Amino acid sequence: MAVRNFTDYFKTEREIYVQNVSDAQVSVEFPVAANHTEGFLFPYTRDPINLTQHFPFDVIKRSTDLRKMINRRPAVLNVLTQEEYNAYFASKAKARGLLDGKGKPDIDAAIDQSEESRRRTADKNLREPIATTTPEPLHDVLESGSGPGGAAHFGERVRVVSREVVSEDDVINPRVLHLCNQVKAELEDSERMAATELLEALQQIPDLSMDDYEHIRAHGFYKTVKKWAKNQVAILASTQGEAEDDEEEDGAKPNKPNKKGKTQAQAGA
C-alpha cells in the first residue's frame, strides 16, 4: 500500500503493518522520548511486522526515518492493510500445516512463529562479537633481514608470501552464509532455525549461483533443504547446458563441400 499523504494516514489511530521488501536488513530510528531515539531492525524476510506491538502509535507517527524508508524508490519498506497482513499469514499457516480447531489456517500461530524467529535473529545480532579494527597483515615473512627486529639492511631482500586468498565470503551469497549459520550442527535444537523457515528464507533470495546451492547442500542441515538445493543444482546445470547448445547453434556454420566438391552456396547457385 503506497502512502502518499502521511498527515491523512496518521489522522486515525490504527495498527501499523510493515513489510521489508528490500534485499537486506533495515534499521529504523523511532523518537521514543525527547532527545532519545530507539532503533528497530526489520530482518531480511518478507514476513510483515505489526509495528504497533513494539512502539506506541504516536511514536511511529513521529518517525521521519520510517517515512523516508517507505517513500524510497526502489521500495525498502511497504505498509500493508490489515486484510493484506492477515492474508499473508493465512497463506503461510496453510503452507506450514498450522490449522485451528475448525481446520482453518491458524493465522495467530503463524504470526507467533514469525515473531519468535525475529526475536531469535535480533538476539543473535546482539551477541555477535565486534570485529577488531586492526587489519590483518597482507603477507607472511619467510625470511627476515639481518637488522634489528628483522629489518633489512640496504641491499638485503626480505622474502614474503602473500596471504591474499579467495575466501568463502567472496564466493557465497552473504545471506546464504548467514542462514546456514542458523542451523549449524553445534547449535541446540531450540536455537536452530526450523526447516520450513529456512527453506522459505532461502527461496526468497534472488539469483543464487551454483556455488550457493552447493554450500546449502553441504551446510543446510535438514534433508528437505539439502534435497531442494540438489534439485536446484540439477536445474541450473541443465539451463546452463541448454544455453551453451544455443550458443553453438547461433555460431557461424562452416560452408562444407558436398560429395561433388561444391559448397552449399555454390550448389544453390
The largest pleated sheet is described as:
3 strands, antiparallel
- When the domains are counted, the total is 2
Rounded to the nearest angstrom, the radius of gyration is 28 Å
**Strand line-up across the major sheet:** 4-1-5
Instruction: Give the overall shape.
Output: globular
Structural class: alpha+beta
Counted by DSSP, the helix tally is: 10
* Average predicted local confidence, pLDDT: 77
What is the secondary structure topology, with strand pairs?
Blueprint (H helix, E strand, L loop, with lengths): L5 H4 L7 E4 L5 E8 L2 E7 L6 E2 L6 H6 L1 H8 L5 E4 L1 H15 L10 H21 L11 E5 L15 E4 L11 H8 L13 H9 L6 H10 L3 H28 L13 H5 L1
Antiparallel strand pairs: 1-4, 1-5, 2-3, 6-7
Walkthrough of the structure:
There is one protein chain. A 3-stranded antiparallel β-sheet has the order 4-1-5. Strands 2-3 form a two-stranded antiparallel ribbon. A two-stranded antiparallel sheet has the order 6-7. The model is unreliable at 126-134 and 164-169 (pLDDT under 50). With 269 residues, the protein is of the alpha+beta class. It is 42% helix and 13% strand. The chain folds into 2 domains: 8-125, no CATH class; 171-246, no CATH class. It starts with 5 loop residues before the first helix and ends with a helix. Helix 4 (82-96) packs across helix 5 (107-127). It has 10 helices and 7 strands.
